[in-house]
Write a structure and sequence with these properties.
Blueprint (H helix, E strand, L loop, with lengths): L2 E4 L2 E3 L5 E7 L6 E9 L6 E7 L4 E3 L7 E6 L4 E6 L8 E9 L4 E3 L3 E5 L2
Parallel strand pairs: 2-11
Antiparallel strand pairs: 1-3, 3-8, 4-5, 4-9, 5-6, 7-8, 9-10, 9-11
């Protein structure tokens, strides 16, 4: 399966962006979908994840600002990002984890928060 992420771009501090990620085909073996990010010079970190049962998990730095959602029918996960800060600048990667424990990563989409 391939993951196609979209929605990145340049936004001013305090602004909003919505990222979306669609799997190339419906995969019933997907357990969790989520977003990670990697800022320049930093390690990749988990931003938010959501299971097919819609159990969510957020990094402390984005709680209350970001919302992850999933559409199981079309294997799409979205990340609504509000009140963006310069420190949110990073390449955001979509990922899926299967019940078997394996995972697939998307190509990444750049989010730049700057005035």
């Amino acid at each position: 399966v391939q993951l196609q992420a979209s929605g990145g771009g340049l936004v001013q501090p305090g602004g909003s962006l919505r990222l979306s990620c669609a799997a190339s085909r419906k995969i019933s073996s997907i357990h969790t979908m989520g977003w990670y990010r990697q800022a320049p010079g930093k390690q990749r970190e988990s931003v938010a994840t959501i299971t097919r049962a819609r159990v969510t998990n957020y990094a402390d730095s984005v709680k209350g600002r970001f919302t992850i959602s999933i559409d199981n029918a079309v294997n799409t996960v979205s990340l609504q990002m509000n009140s963006l800060r310069p420190e949110d600048t990073a390449v955001y990667y979509c990922t899926v984890t299967y019940y078997s424990g394996g995972s697939t990563w998307g190509q990444g989409t750049l989010v730049t928060v700057s005035s």
